[in-house]
Structure formats: structure tokens, C-alpha cells
Amino acid sequence: MSDRMTHIERVVNSLQNKPVDRITAYPIACGVQRRLLSTPTTYAEWCSDPRKYAEAFVAGQRAMDYDFAIGLMDLSVCAGDYGAGVRFDEQNTPFVVDPVVKSPQDYETKFANMPNPKKGRSGVITEGTKIFVDKIGKEVITAGFLEGPLLILTQSAGAEKVFMDMYNHRSAVHKALADITRFDAAMVEEFGNAKPAGLVWDYLWGSYSCLGDKEYEEFEAKYARELNALTQEKGMAFCIHNCADLPHLDTQIKAFKPAIYSMAWYPLIPGSPSAKETIMKGYADNCLVAGNIDPQAFVRFSTEKIEKTTMNLLQEVKTAMCAKGLHSRYCVASGCEVPPALATKLENIKAVVDTTKKYGQIECN
Ligand SMILES: [Zn+2]
Question: From ligand 1's centre to the CA of 70, what distance in Å?
Fold first, then answer.
């Protein structure tokens, strides 16, 4: 069946749980879209030039016809701007090789001066977001993407180190988190100027495999609340991405109340919430939940297999939504970013969107 609503109409209705012509679709394809540019562009070039960064989102929209455009880059953007050594491979996701924090004192001193949100890769992502919002913001729902304070800290110091220092050097860790929260707030201001419809926060440490409720509250939630409120104050819908295996859904969906929550699913991990469980437990009652195709499926699966996977997810979601009396509060998405590697099959990204167009209609009996 062909679409009867525009992308924006469909998303707006989904956010309000109103009927839609079909469920929304958004495989989180970001860096991989550089491969759609007319000039050959490496990942390293794409992620350091706001124009190339933005053009890839425009090219991706033209090729795939998504319902959203979310400006995710990678998780070493902010750590790099704080001075971490980042390794850039030509065609893959950059990563931190030389952390900022080497001693407990570093928590107190290294984050005191915040990076300039207009410079470095923070500047690439904020300026690049503005460019793609200007180009396609009237066609699709756009959003910026920003790492939460605890994620920036673990990227800057190493996760294992931070998790130990939470106990051994508690006040120093809090000093770093408070400083990083000021930087995140400055980034929210800058994203606000770019005027995307929403801002997606990566709060991936809200995960029961890493932190309990009490620790999450102390080391992220209390900082996050302030940033969540600021996001809305600056005119952007507040959204969360968390691809953890055991996400803190009560805190991050029920208490934080995001407009959109993007999540993954790990079928082999007991307790990892499937789409059906997430919907049946009420997490989609007031939030547009996005999930949960394994990102590796875009590399490994045949087109036929990813079509089948998408059809199964659609069936699961429709059955659960009808049982819950919901009309449209799910987005067929990947659980995390589609790998930006050269091995990723672009045709599989298109297949997820096209299968949702074909089979994403909901009619409850
Ligand atoms: Zn993720």
C-alpha cells in the first residue's frame, strides 16, 4: 500500500497515539549514509566537516525516505573536545585511545573549562545539524543527538575506571559530572539555535547490567533531569536513546517522560525487554517507542531475511498495540546505529523502510 500521510503528519499522529496510514520507520543510519554522497567520502572526512555531515543526511533521506532524521555521529565527539586522544580510522567509527582522566585529581580539573560548542567536533555536529534541519526539516522530523553527562565522562575516562571511582573518589566524580552537565547545557543552547524538532539524549548507563536504581539516580538521573527540562525550554522535543540490554524503563520512560524512546533488544539476555513486553507493560502508553532490529542484521542478513525480521516485528507490535488499545506508538527502527562500515548493506536499510510501508498498517479487530 502506498503512503497516504506525509512523514510529519505520521510522526505527529504517532506521538499523540492517533491513527496513522502505517507505523513509522527509522533505521538509525547515520555515518553509513556518507556512502550515498556523489563524491567518495571517508568516515573521517564525514565526521569532521559539517557540510558533508549534513549532506549525508539529505542523501539518506532522498534514497531511503525515512520518517525521521536524527543527527547521531559517534560517542567520542565530546570526549575528544575535552582533550581525549581519538583514533580516526578512514572508514569506521572513531574511538578514544588516550583518556582525559589519568588520576583522581583529573576529575576535578580536566572538565572545569568546557569546550566551545561551536568548535571541534561539537561544532561539526551542531553546525551540521543546523544545515540538515534547514534542508529537510520541513519534510521529516529532525533531531540533534547528544551524549548524557555520565556517558561523556565514561568516554573521557574509561567506563571501568569511572565505575570504580564512583565509590573510591565519589566527590571528584561528582565534580566532573557537574562540570560536564554545564557543557551539555551549553550544547543544548547551541542545538536550540539549529531548531531541530527534537533532541535525543544518549543515556546508555541507565542499565541494570551496570547500575542499580540508586546509583543511576545519583550519577546520572539527577543531572539528566535538569538537561531534560532545558531541552524542552529551548523548544525541542525531549527524546532518549538507550541501547542497553536491561534499560531503566521506569526511570527513563515513566519518570523522565520523553516524547520518543529508542531502545534495543537482546533476545539472548534474560529480562531484556522485547517490543511486545515493552508495549504490554505500558511503556508505550505515553511515549513513542522505537526499536529494535539488531544493527548487525544490516551487515549480515540477506535482504529477504531482514524483510522477514521487519515483518515479524510489525506483527508483534501490531498485536501488542491492539491488545493495549494503542494506534501508532511504535517506530520500526534499529536498536542502535546501523554500523557505518563498508560491509553494511545499504539495500537492507531500504528494505526495512519499504517493508514497513508495505505491511505497517494497523487494523485492530
Ligand atoms: Zn546505541
Answer: 13
Sheet strands (E) in 109-185: 141-147
* Closest by CA position to 35, among listed 302, 298, 360: 298
Whole-prediction pTM value?
A: 0.97
CA of 64 to the centre of ligand 1 (A): 21
Ligand 1 centre to CA of 31 (Å) is: 13
Instruction: Tell me the CA–centroid distance for residue 30 and ligand 1, in Å.
Output: 12
Per DSSP (E only), the strands in 166-280 are: 198-202, 237-242, 260-263
For residue 304, the tally of other CB atoms under 10 A from its CB is: 9
Find all residues with CB under 8 Å of 90, minimum gap 6, and list them.
42, 43, 44
Separation between Cα atoms, residue 65 and residue 24, nearest integer Å: 11
Strand, helix or coil for residue 337: coil
Q: What are phi and psi of 68, to 5 degrees?
A: -135, 165
Rounded CA gap, 247 and 238, in Å? 18
Is residue 154 within 8 Å of 101, Cβ to Cβ? no
pLDDT digits (tens, 9 = 90+) for 121-138: 999 999 999 999 999 999
Of the listed ranges 86-90, 291-295, 308-312, the one predicted with least confidence:
86-90
> How many A from CA of 74 to the centre of ligand 1?
9
Domain boundaries, the chain: 7-359
Looking at 275-362, list the stretches that DSSP marks H as alpha helix, in order from N- to C-terminal side: 275-280, 297-300, 303-324, 346-359
Burial code (b: 16+ CB inside 10 Å, e: under 16) for 217-255 equals bbbbbebbeebbebbeebebbbbbbbbbbbbbbebbbee
Strand (E) positions, the chain?
24-26, 68-70, 85-87, 95-98, 141-147, 198-202, 237-242, 260-263, 288-293, 330-334
Convert the pLDDT of each residue in 309-356 to its tens digit.
999 999 999 999 999 999 999 999 999 999 999 999 999 999 999 999
Instruction: Give the bridge partners for 242, in sequence order.
Output: 263
Ligand 1: distance of its center to the CA of 105 in Å? 30
7-359 maps to which CATH number?
A: 3.20.20.210
